[in-house]
Amino acid sequence: MKSKIAELRKQRKISQQELATAVGVTRQTITSIEVEKYTASLVLAYKIARYFDMAIEEIFDFSDVEV
């Protein structure tokens, strides 16, 4: 699942650590999501979306997720 987290962080000039602290995870978790080695849980995706004041679908691309 692709995400726009890195792009949004850079636009807002925040570090991976700042985002991680705000949503209650480690910097490594944010890094892993950004490089697509880890898929955020629904709860974490929701927290990230709330942090950026956006809908989950605006941040995460679900087109490659099988149902």
Mind explaining what this structure looks like?
- With 67 residues, this protein is mostly helical.
- It has one domain (2-60): 434 Repressor (Amino-terminal Domain) (Orthogonal Bundle), CATH 1.10.260.
- The chain is 58% helix and 6% strand.
- It contains five helices and two strands; from the N terminus they run βαααααβ.
- The chain has a two-stranded antiparallel sheet.
- Helix 2 (16-23) crosses helix 3.
- The radius of gyration is 11 Å and the shape is globular.
- The two termini are 13 Å apart.
- The model has no long low-confidence stretch (mean pLDDT 94).
- It comes from Alkalibaculum bacchi.
- It holds the Pfam family HTH_3.
- Residues 5-59 form the HTH cro/C1-type domain.
Oligomer: single chain
What is the mean predicted local confidence, pLDDT? Answer: 94
Radius of gyration using CA atoms only: 11 Å
Query: How do the helices and strands follow one another from N- to C-terminus?
Result: EHHHHHE
Individual helix count? 5
What is the CATH homology-level superfamily?
lambda repressor-like DNA-binding domains
Helix content: 55-70%
CATH topology: 434 Repressor (Amino-terminal Domain)
